[in-house]
Design a protein that fits this description.
By secondary structure, this protein is mostly beta strands. The protein has helices at residues 2-14, 19-24, and strands at residues 28-38, 41-43, 47-51, 54-66, 69-86, 98-112, 118-133, 141-155, 160-173, 194-195, 198-209.
Length: 211
């Protein structure tokens, strides 16, 4: 099921882009990557939900739309564990660790600086974050999310390079929590506008296509 949601999200973002215009532009860069992600912590009225740090992986697609400017579509996922730590009075809520997949599907623009074979870049992306617990007692949640990132592309040849990047990731929880946790119908409530701070550091290979 999680793969279906991921593919559906990618298709949804791609249909926002005119494919004729994509291939009419210049260079297209495909970048598989891997790295390390910080899970973060979410505070609820009943306690804290802590998501463990772990390795993550993903894929970025950069499409040149103007000089030194690229449209970026990026997906990443971390498979990790999480634990809810209830406050006093909420000990009935399950506090055992559980497996969870945390992923981001984002689209935005990045700007690059040209220093011969090294191109520093920075950009802003918007899209969705998903939290997919691997247990039937927990429910999957999709949230609006933003990303702020920067790094460098180091070109070895005209077609092959290395991509190094760091990102600040912000999923937003408005009007309610993303998880339904506990036994006997126990749930979480949270005020509007609450966010969890996450981030990652990644490195990957760049394969350039087109002119």
């Amino acid at each position: 099921m999680k793969r279906i949601y991921t593919i559906a999200g990618l298709i949804f973002l791609m249909v926002l882009i005119d494919p004729v215009q994509i291939f009419a532009q210049g260079k297209i860069e495909l970048s598989p990557f891997g790295g390390y992600m910080f899970g973060g912590k979410m505070r609820f009225y009943e306690g804290d939900l802590k998501i463990d740090n772990n390795a993550n992986y993903g894929l970025a697609l950069d499409i040149e739309i103007a000089k030194d400017t690229k449209l970026e579509l990026i997906w990443s996922q971390m498979n990790t564990t999480a634990r809810f730590r209830p406050y006093y009075g909420y000990d009935f809520i399950d506090s055992n660790p559980f497996d969870v997949n945390v992923g981001y599907i984002q689209v935005g623009t990045i700007r690059e600086l040209d220093y011969d074979n090294i191109r520093p870049f920075g950009g802003l992306t918007l899209g969705a974050a998903y939290f997919s617990p691997q247990n039937t007692n927990y429910s999957q949640s999709w949230k609006f999310a933003a990303g702020l990132g920067g790094g460098a592309k180091i070109w070895i040849t005209e077609r092959v390079g290395i991509r190094l990047q760091g990102r600040l990731l912000l999923p937003f929880f408005w009007g309610g929590a993303g998880f339904t946790v506990g036994t006997g119908g126990a749930g979480f409530t949270v005020g509007a506008g609450t966010s969890m701070v996450q981030g990652d550091f990644t490195g990957g290979l760049i394969i350039a296509l087109g002119d």
